Amino acid sequence: MITARINHSREVRKDMGRRLARIFFCLGFVLTLTVLEYGTSKAAIYVCRDTSGKVNYTNVRNSANCNIFKIKQKRSSRTNGQTSVGRTNRSRYDYDIKRIARRYRIDPPLIKAIIHVESDFNHRAVSSHGAQGLMQLMPATARELRVSNPFNPRENIEGGTRYFRKMLDNFKGDLILSLAAYNAGPGRVARAGGVPQIKETRRYVNKVLKRYRAYKAVM
Length: 219
Description:
Layout: H1 2-42, E1 46-49, E2 55-58, E3 66-68, H2 94-103, H3 108-119, H4 139-144, H5 153-170, H6 175-184, H7 186-192, H8 199-216
Antiparallel strand pairs: 1-2, 1-3
Helix pairs in contact: 2-3, 2-5, 3-8, 5-6, 6-7, 6-8
């Protein structure tokens, strides 16, 4: 009788183990699909040519004349093929970046990429045009965003992220146009009907996208 109970208990445990294994397998499969879907659809950038021959960059494939834009990343000699974005000085603001970016429904690695390109994480940076701080806010823009001290990292990230959220809303979520607007101004992007033919702006968009993909792999 005791032996029968022990055998029954063992069978119950085995059955529970098999059920749990199936549950975890299903959860893992769903998670994998989610990650793949996010990685392919959210991060894809397209180069599109319109009927007049003008080239535009976008994250929305809106015609058959669009091809995926691929950015070549240099391999680091000390990181097994990963870009060297994990340095201590580049992680000091991660907490504020994540907290503020999520509040504005923006992927944190994107804000970090913008900061990297704008100021290389120097919170005291001032450009030749007078842009200030981590996200290089112009004084007039900082006042409009109610940033009292643009050299305060947290205030600057808050103001810059809020401004970039405004660009995303203005350009209906188009990442490329929003980045171009952050660099060149929304008026120029609107007048050009796409990324303006400004070398600095096109280089800027390219650099941010490159950093975004790199930080996305490590944040």
